Amino acid sequence: MVHPKLFGGVEAGGTKFLCGVADENGVILDQVRIATTTPAETLGAVDAFFAQAGARHGPLAALSIGSFGPLSLRSTAPDYGSITSTPKVGWSHVDLLGHFQRTLGVPVALDTDVNCSAVGEYLFGSGQGLGAFCYVTIGTGIGVGHLLGGVPHTGANHPEAGHIRLPRAPGDQAFEGICPFHGDCLEGLACGPAMQARWGVPAEELPPRHPAWAIAADYIAGLCATLTYILRPDRIIVGGGVMQQADMYPRVRTALEAKLAGYDASLRGLDIDAYVAEPTAGASAGLTGALAIAHRLITRQWPMHWVLGAHQNSVSTLSKVS
Fold first, then answer.
1. Which residues pair with 28 in a beta bridge?
2. CA distances (Å), 279 to each of 87, 126, 243, in order?
3. Beta strands in 90-131 (DSSP E)
4. Torsions phi, psi of 190, nearest 5?
5. Do 6-113+284-321 and 126-277 agree at the fold level?
6. DSSP H or E run through 255
């Protein structure tokens, strides 16, 4: 069946690309999960997916990509639209925006994966109705997206709050950190691979009472305190694999309260349990956010009529392409 207006989305991650096509009502008609290998292989598989989806449902009106980075997002930059100096082997200087403009011939938007997830949370999850909030992911890397007035914050380029420096957590003075650029920045100390490098096993294999969790919570709370002092958002939504440990949210909230130290301007009107929140838009928030950005690229408005259920039901049946 050919649909009158279709939108494409790509959530480009370091381990997988999630790709989808949605109709004007937000129903996902086609989607696929593609392993992130080499740029040629991965982008070729993405091109094939959209070609096949186009043959089944009709041409896209627009595409949006939420990608791992760093990205060049200043339109006047000579490498605008490219991944820049990423530690992901083989992916530095890959021109994502130009590639899809050439292969699809439709308007294409590019933003960070965390900003796309933030849009997903704004429309379908824990960011609904908020004027300003941050979306934080603590996983393979650490990233922060900031929505202000329902729109991702932009400037000279995207923020990289995962690379701020924080005071060392108690008991963590010896670990050098793993960031190839900064060593012991926040990401170098608290992302999933940093936890594995420090303790010798993946984070998910560490027992609940292991000291790793108190250390990780201290660093995440340090990030939340910094965001609070600089931005004072309505909410900080924290997701990612490291947050899957059972009591991480209470640990982070407790550590954040200690770091704010009763400072009135930061605590005024703050309900800590609601302020540091879990994401609720589902595992595919990045993809649905990308689809919504593609819709906005054409219509100039967010698809407030879309419903989350259409996305969640589809995402559970992702096909896999290696």
1. 22
2. 27, 6, 10
3. 108-112
4. -125, -5
5. yes
6. helix 248-260
Asked whether the predicted pLDDT for residue 283 surpasses 90, the reply is no
Q: Which range has highest mean pLDDT (163-172, 298-307, 309-318)?
A: 163-172
Looking at 276-315, list the stretches that DSSP marks H as alpha helix, in order from N- to C-terminal side. 285-299, 308-315
Confidence of residue 309 (pLDDT cuts 50, 70, 90): very low
Pairing of strands 235-239, 151-152: unpaired
User: Do residues 66 and 112 lie in contact, with contact meaning Cβ atoms separated by under 8 Å?
Assistant: yes
Instruction: Tell me which CATH homologous superfamily contains domain 126-277.
Output: ATPase, nucleotide binding domain (3.30.420.40)
> Omega of the bond prior to 70 within 30 degrees of 0, cis?
yes
Tell me the average pLDDT of the chain: 91
CATH of 6-113+284-321 among 3.40.50.2300, 3.30.420.40, 3.30.70.100, 2.60.40.10: 3.30.420.40
Q: CB-based contacts of 185: which residues, under 8 Å, 6+ apart?
A: 162, 163, 164, 165, 177, 179
Question: Hey, where are the domains in the chain?
Answer: 6-113+284-321, 126-277
Q: pTM of the prediction?
A: 0.91
Distance in Å from the first CA to the final CA of the chain: 27
Side-chain-facing half-sphere of 166: CA atoms under 13 Å: 29
- The answer to whether the beta carbons of residues 220 and 226 sit under 8 Å apart is no
Per the structure block, which two tokens stand in for 98? 């130009």
